[in-house]
Amino acid sequence: MSERADPPGRLALVQALVNTLDLETGGDALDTPQGRAPFGLTEDTAGPARELRESLRAALLAHAGHSPHRAVTPLGELLARAPLVVTVDPADGSAALAPVDDGPLLSRVAAAVAEGVTAGTWGRLKACEAPTCHWAYYDRSPAGRGRWCSMQVCGARAKMRRYRAKEA
Ligand SMILES: [Zn+2]
Prior knowledge:
ABATE_dom_sf; mainly alpha; Zinc finger CGNR domain-containing protein; binds zinc ion; Znf_CGNR; ABATE
């Protein structure tokens, strides 16, 4: 399995949203209609989505024990505005939290977080600790102590920096 494999279930939506912004280059996929389309966003709704994105990134940093990368609206405050319903499958009685009427992005993200909490996967969706990166990734390490989006990229860079610091 590749290190960049998508997180399970609906958390893939959260990861995809957080990773619409490349912090290193400043490139923002939500600036273009093609980039907004997968999230059902328009130019008008992209603003709140950007706020949601950074609140999510701060929560994913917190999962790895890091403080927020900048001041954000607390994620819980945003998600509290998301209308959700409890759905029950008549076939097997299984229940889940779902967005109302297939809802706006905020509700879909709230449902994804709720699903991740139930599945025990939410805490493993993290943001890379490298300040120029903070990319969202799913930590598949056995102990759940992953620190970087990719050992090959950010992990190697951090190791190289430490190595140089020792040599100096
Ligand atoms: Zn990284």
